[in-house]
Design a protein that fits this description.
Pfam families: KH_NucS_shadow (PF20704). Helix content is 56%, strand content 10%. It is mainly α and 130 residues long.
Length: 130
């Protein structure tokens, strides 16, 4: 299961649309490692003034790896995080999360990160099973 949905939020979703704030709070509470990783990368982006920042630190275990995979493989969760943080997220392997400023989505750095070459260059024997 990707998210642990509180009964009140599930009731609200059954009645109609839910707010981004409620959805993002559910993501934050359900996937704390993914939330912390994305938050850290976004903070690094804000602090360094460049067009992007990325995480190269592998998760400490399978549970944390699973959280990142669930967060970034879900269109709804990824889009909610992007709206909340005001960034474009990109993902490679099981841990390499990058945050790009929206204006940098057409940049060389973004194209390089999301390219087949970028994916191939980010492979290693340690990451093949992630």
């Amino acid at each position: 299961m990707s998210l642990t949905v509180p009964p009140a939020l599930l009731d609200a979703a059954e009645r109609g649309p839910v707010s981004d704030a409620d959805f993002v709070a559910c993501v934050r509470d359900s996937l704390p490692y993914a939330w912390q990783t994305v938050s850290r990368v976004v903070a690094e982006l804000a602090a360094d003034g460049t067009d992007h920042a990325d995480n190269e630190i592998p998760p400490p275990g399978e549970a944390e790896r699973g959280q990142l995979l669930r967060a970034l493989a879900s269109d709804a969760i990824r889009a909610g995080l992007e709206r909340h943080f005001g960034v474009k997220l990109a993902f490679q392997n099981c841990h390499r999360v990058a945050a790009f400023r929206p204006a940098a989505v057409d940049s060389e750095a973004y194209r390089r990160f999301v390219s087949p070459r970028g994916q191939l260059l980010n492979q290693s024997p340690e990451l093949r099973n992630c």
